[in-house]
Design goal:
Structural class: alpha/beta
CATH class of the largest domain: Mainly Beta
Strand order of the largest sheet: 4-7-10-12-13
Helix content: 10-25%
Radius of gyration: 21 Å
Oligomer: single chain
Largest sheet: 5 strands, mixed
């Protein structure tokens, strides 16, 4: 990301970042990359947000490059590329346009994420093309984590509840669900207190 973009848009959430040598390629204004909160990206990530040519016409070449009144059809566009929250992306992963990576996912090193890809939350995806190999947690734990959406809370709340972030949620599902329920109550209380303070 060492160059200013001349088209398209890029937003990145709190506490997110990509490693050195990462590149986002834009071709025009409609292209957008949206990165959520607490996303950890490795070295040399590649996001090819478009780069498509029309393949249903006789010539795939961009004839307008040669001037002389030559025109070509509009370029097909992928939808927005969206990386949700708390996603870990391994080194040299490659994303094609229109990808949506749900919260809590892992994208393995050198994975190729195909166009219009849709992950499931808390899945681990590897390979070319990227495929689901397993989930990080049980279904019940995943549901609780998504409902908790801890990434929406301020860093001070995370610090207050830091001990819960150190627990292995794969060892004992019952205990994991208890911890997540306790965190949900802590989140609800914090929101209620913030609303009461705003009203007074």
């Amino acid at each position: 990301m060492d160059q200013e973009i001349s088209g398209g848009s890029f937003t990145i959430g709190r506490a997110s970042g990509f490693g050195i040598g990462s590149i986002v390629k834009y071709d025009s204004d409609p292209q957008t990359l949206v990165v959520g909160k607490y996303v950890s990206g490795g070295l040399r990530l590649r996001f090819l947000l478009n780069g498509r040519h029309e393949i249903r016409t006789m010539a795939m070449k961009v004839l307008s490059e040669y001037g002389n009144g030559l025109v070509n059809p509009p370029f097909p566009q992928y939808p927005d590329t969206i990386i949700h929250n708390d996603v870990w992306i391994g080194d040299e992963a490659f994303f094609l346009g229109g990808s949506i990576v749900e919260s809590g996912c892992i994208i393995g090193a050198r994975a190729v994420v195909p166009p219009n890809f849709r992950s499931e939350a808390y899945g681990i995806y590897v390979g070319s093309p990227a495929r689901l190999v397993r989930f990080r947690f049980s279904e019940k734990v995943r549901e609780k984590l998504l409902a908790l959406a801890w990434w929406d809370m301020p860093l001070s709340w995370i610090k207050e509840n830091n001990a819960a972030f150190l627990v292995d949620l794969t060892l004992d599902e019952g205990r994991a669900l208890e911890i997540l329920s306790e965190l949900q109550r802590a989140k609800d209380n914090a929101i209620e207190m913030a609303c009461a303070a705003a009203r007074s």
